[in-house]
Amino acid sequence: MNSGGKRTEVRLPPPQSPRSWSEARHQAARRLVAANPDGTYMGKPPALLLAIPVMTVELHADGSVRNISVMRYPSQAKDTVNLAIAAIHRAAPFGDISRLPKPWRFNETFLFNDERKFKPMTLDQPGS
């Protein structure tokens, strides 16, 4: 949030057209962070996370969001599910995926710290 308590509005550049689902997931994770600068962190996740919601994002061919479903609800801090859903919508679209094999969807695990800021787990894996 900015000094006035309002969320920082971010205009993202148009997404690339990913050549693989691995590339699509990494681009989506980077867009999640870029579109949500006030709600993310990039350091090492804490040993004890506040919540770990897991989302499935189903896309249209143009990379816009078709549907978001929750694969795993956290046992506490259930509001983080709504924070993750809003973050996904702010980061969309995710690039033209029409040439990728169906189904046009990916999963993302949101690693929330005690400040209710998240890091996409995709960016916390080796080679990211």
Note the main attributes of this structure.
128 residues, alpha+beta, 22% helix, globular
Helices and strands in order, then pairings?
Blueprint: H1 21-35, E1 54-59, E2 65-72, H2 79-91, E3 105-112, E4 118-120
Antiparallel strand pairs: 1-2, 1-3, 3-4
Helix pairs in contact: 1-2
Task: Tell me what you see in this structure.
- The structure is a single chain.
- The chain is of the alpha+beta class and 128 residues long.
- The chain is 22% helix and 20% strand.
- It is built from 2 helices and 4 strands; from the N terminus they run H-E-E-H-E-E.
- The protein has helices at residues 21-35, 79-91, and strands spanning 54-59, 65-72, 105-112, 118-120.
- A 4-stranded antiparallel β-sheet has the order 2-1-3-4, with helices on one face.
- Strand 3 and strand 4 (118-120) form a beta hairpin.
- The chain is globular and about 40 Å long.
- It starts with 20 loop residues before the first helix and ends in an 8-residue tail after the last strand.
- The mean pLDDT is 92.
